[in-house]
Design a protein that fits this description.
Distance between the termini: 118 Å
Number of strands: 22
Helix content: 25-40%
CATH superfamily of the largest domain: Histidine kinase-like ATPase, C-terminal domain
CATH class of the largest domain: Alpha Beta
C-alpha cells in the first residue's frame, strides 16, 4: 500500500481517467499546498506540452493515463495507441526489474524523484531503443497516487558510446598486438601509455615508465634534439618522423624510426603526443652491409650489371663505367640492348638459353660509347625470388680484348712457324716442278720450229700452272687472320686443304681423305679452320718420323639429348665432324690433361712453341664447337672435332 492507502499495481483502471487529454483529474483541492507536491492542471499542461522528451502519466499499476504527443515522433506510436496500455509492456525483459523497482520507489516516496534509470524501449517497428526514465509520484484530484514519468531518447548517445568502445577496444587490441612500440606522452613529455611491444623493445615494463619522462631510453647525445622536436610537435611545426639511437634497459643501443602524432581536442588544442616506434637496427645493419657490398662490386675489375625481365638496366658498377664509357645515371632504367647489343641476334639467342637453363656463358663482341670494339667473356645468371620466379639477370663481363689481340699475334706467329716447317718440302716440290722449265728453255732456242716443240711447250705450261697453284695456296694460308665469320662450304675448304697436304707432306706418310660432297655448311672463319687442320696434320706428321698412315674423315652427325652429354661442352644439334687419326707414337697419359695448355710442348725447343693445340682449342671454342681426344702410346692418336652446322 502506498502512503495514501492506494493498492500499488492492482487498482482497477478508471476508463475516464485514462482518456487522453483529460486533465480534470489533476485539479487538486485548494487546501493542499503546492509544497506537498500537488500540481494544478494549468501547470501540468504547460509541463507536458513544452518538453521535447516523452512525458507520461501512469496510475499506481503502471497503466498509461496520458502520454505527450512527442511519443509519436520518438517511438512511432500515436498517443491513443499507448493510453490504456501498461507501460511495462514496452520495456525490454532484461530491464523490467530495474524499471519496476524504480516505479515502486517513486510510489513509496511521493514528491521525490526516482533517479535516472536506463531502460530499453520497444519502437513501433519492433526495434529497441535506449531511454533514460525519471519519475515522481504525486496525488491526483481524487487523492490517488499517480506517477509522472519523463523519458529521454538516448539511443544515438548509446550507439556513439558503443562505437567509441569498439574503437577503443580495437585500438587497445592493435596496441597490444602490433610489433611496433606505442608510446603516449602528455604535454610535459611524461609517459602516459606504454604497450607490450614497447616493453619488449626497450626492456622496461609499463609500471616502471608511466608517469616518467623518456630520459631512460634517450642517450645523452640525443636529448637536446629530442626536446627540440617535442617542442615543434606541441606547436604543430613538424617533427613527425625521425630516426635516432635509443637505449634499452640492458644498455644496448638500438636504432629506431619514430612516427609522432599530436593528440588534439575538438578545438585543435594539443593535449599530448602518440609515438609509433620501430626497431630498425637490423635493417640499418643490412643496409650498411649492402652499401659495403656495393662498394666492393665497384672495386671489382669485371663489369657487373643487372637488368630486369623487361631488359631495363637496374645496376651498373664502376667497372662497367670504365669498360663501356657510359656513366650509371646514363643507363639506369634504359634498355640494355640499346647500349650493348645493337645487333639483336646474338642477344636473343643467349636470352633463350638463359631462360631455358638459368645461365649462359660465352664470348661477345660489344661496342663502347667511344665506338671502340670490345671483346668480353660474359656470364649470365637468372636471379629468382623467394617463390622461385625469375626476376632479373645478373651479368659479369670480363674484358678479353687484349687477350684476343694477343691470341691473334700468337696465331700469326704459329702460322709463320708452320710455314717455316713446310718450307723445305715446298722448296723441294718447287724444284721438281720448275726443273722441266729450266731444261726445256735452252732447247727451245734451237728447236722452236720442230714439231716436238709443241709437246714440250705443253709440258712447260702444265708445270708452270701447277707451280702457280701451289704458290697460290701458300699465299692464301699465310694471309692475315680475319675475325669475321661467314657460311663455309666445308667440302670445298677440306678438298683445297687435301690438295695442299698431298703436295707438301713426305711420301713416307700415307694419306687417306674421306670428304663427302654433302657436308653441311658451317658458319665460321675459313682461315682459322684451315689453321686447325694444319695444326692437327703437322702434329700427326711429327708423331710419325719414320712414316705411317694419316687419315681424315669428315661426316655429318646429329647429337641428341642422350649422346650430347657424353662430349664435353656439346649440346644437342647438328654438327660437321672431323676425325683426324695417325699411327704415331701417341701421347703419354701424364700429358693428356695438359695438351691444350699454352706453351706446353714435348718437342725440342727449336721445333715448336707449344702453341698449336692451345690455339686450335681456342678456335674451336670460338666456333661453339668441341673436341674429343683419344691416344695410346705407340699406337697413335685420334682427334674428333665437332663444329655446329649452320641453320641457314
Amino acid at each position: 500500500m502506498n502512503p495514501a492507502g492506494t493498492k500499488i499495481m492492482n487498482a482497477p483502471l478508471n476508463p475516464e481517467a485514462n482518456r487522453p487529454g483529460n486533465f480534470s483529474q489533476f485539479t487538486f483541492p485548494p487546501s493542499t499546498p503546492p509544497a506537498a507536491g500537488v500540481y494544478g492542471e494549468r501547470h501540468l499542461h504547460s509541463l507536458i506540452e513544452n518538453v521535447s522528451d516523452i512525458v507520461a502519466v501512469l496510475n499506481d499499476e503502471g497503466f498509461v493515463r496520458y502520454v505527450s504527443p512527442s511519443v509519436e515522433r520518438i517511438l512511432g506510436y500515436r498517443p491513443q495507441d499507448i493510453v490504456g496500455t501498461n507501460a511495462f509492456d514496452l520495456i525490454h525483459l532484461d530491464d523490467l526489474l530495474a524499471a519496476k523497482t524504480s516505479f515502486v520507489q517513486a510510489l513509496l516516496n511521493p514528491g521525490q524523484s526516482s533517479g535516472l534509470v536506463p531502460v530499453r524501449t520497444r519502437y513501433q517497428d519492433g526495434s529497441w531503443g535506449h531511454m533514460e526514465a525519471i519519475g515522481k509520484s504525486l496525488p491526483d484530484a481524487l487523492g490517488q497516487l499517480i506517477v509522472v514519468l519523463s523519458l529521454r531518447d538516448i539511443t544515438s548517445r548509446k550507439e556513439a558510446e558503443a562505437a567509441l568502445q569498439r574503437s577503443e577496444y580495437k585500438l587497445r587490441l592493435h596496441s597490444e598486438q602490433t610489433r611496433m612500440a606505442l608510446i603516449e606522452w602528455d604535454t610535459e613529455f611524461r609517459i602516459t601509455g606504454w604497450n607490450a611491444a614497447a616493453e619488449k623493445m626497450f626492456g622496461y615494463t609499463a609500471d616502471e615508465v608511466v608517469g616518467k619522462t623518456g630520459g631512460m631510453i634517450v642517450p645523452e647525445s640525443s636529448k637536446g634534439l629530442v626536446r627540440e622536436i617535442g617542442r615543434d610537435l606541441l606547436l604543430g611545426q613538424g617533427g613527425e618522423r625521425m630516426t635516432n639511437e635509443n637505449l634499452t634497459r640492458d644498455g644496448r643501443k638500438i636504432i629506431c624510426d619514430w612516427c609522432n602524432t599530436p593528440l588534439l581536442t575538438a578545438e585543435g588544442k594539443v593535449i599530448g603526443i602518440i609515438s609509433l616506434v620501430e626497431d630498425v637496427t637490423e635493417r640499418q645493419v643490412m643496409a650498411e652491409q649492402m652499401r659495403e657490398q656495393a662498394s666492393l662490386l665497384d672495386l671489382a675489375q669485371d663489369a657487373i650489371l643487372v637488368w630486369d625481365l623487361e631488359q631495363r638496366i637496374k645496376y651498373w658498377n664502376k667497372s662497367a663505367e670504365r669498360l663501356y664509357g657510359w656513366m650509371t645515371d646514363e643507363v639506369i632504367g634504359q634498355q640494355v640492348s640499346t647500349f650493348l647489343f645493337p645487333k639483336k641476334t646474338s642477344f636473343q639467342a643467349a636470352l633463350i638459353t638463359l631462360m631455358e637453363k638459368g645461365e649462359w656463358s660465352g664470348e661477345l663482341v660489344q661496342t663502347a660509347k667511344s665506338g671502340k670494339e670490345i671483346f668480353v667473356s660474359s656470364r649470365w645468371t637468372l636471379v629468382k625470388n623467394s617463390q622461385g620466379r625469375a626476376k632479373s639477370v645478373l651479368v659479369i663481363n670480363t674484358d678479353i680484348t687484349e687477350k684476343k689481340q694477343l691470341q691473334a699475334h700468337f696465331l700469326r706467329a704459329q702460322r709463320i712457324e708452320s710455314l717455316g716447317t713446310l718450307a723445305s718440302g715446298i722448296a723441294h716440290d718447287l724444284n721438281n716442278i720448275f726443273a722441266p722449265i729450266l731444261m726445256i728453255t735452252p732447247m727451245l732456242r734451237s728447236e722452236l720450229k720442230r714439231s716436238e716443240a709443241l709437246a714440250r711447250l705443253d709440258t712447260l705450261e702444265s708445270s708452270a700452272l701447277h707451280g702457280v697453284e701451289i704458290v697460290k695456296q701458300i699465299l692464301t694460308f699465310s694471309r692475315g687472320l680475319k675475325t669475321g665469320k661467314e657460311p663455309i662450304q666445308m667440302h670445298q675448304l677440306m678438298e683445297g686443304f687435301a690438295r695442299l697436304i698431298r703436295e707438301v707432306f713426305p711420301k713416307s706418310i700415307t694419306l687417306h681423305f674421306t670428304i663427302p660432297k654433302d657436308l653441311w655448311v658451317v658458319n665460321g672463319n675459313a682461315t682459322e679452320l684451315h689453321q686447325v687442320l694444319m695444326n692437327l696434320f703437322i702434329n700427326a706428321r711429327d708423331a710419325m718420323p719414320s712414316g705411317g698412315v694419316l687419315t681424315l674423315i669428315a661426316t655429318n652427325i646429329i647429337l641428341n639429348e642422350e649422346t650430347a652429354p657424353r662430349i664435353v661442352n656439346a649440346r644437342p644439334g647438328r654438327y660437321v665432324s672431323w676425325q683426324v687419326s695417325d699411327t704415331g707414337v701417341g701421347i703419354p697419359p701424364e700429358n693428356m690433361a695438359r695438351i691444350f695448355d699454352p706453351f706446353f710442348s714435348t718437342k725440342e725447343q727449336a721445333k715448336g712453341t707449344g702453341l698449336g693445340l692451345s690455339i686450335m682449342h681456342g678456335i674451336i671454342n670460338n666456333h661453339d664447337g668441341c673436341i674429343e681426344v683419344q691416344s695410346r702410346e705407340m699406337q697413335g692418336t685420334e682427334f674428333k672435332i665437332y663444329l655446329p652446322a649452320s641453320n641457314a
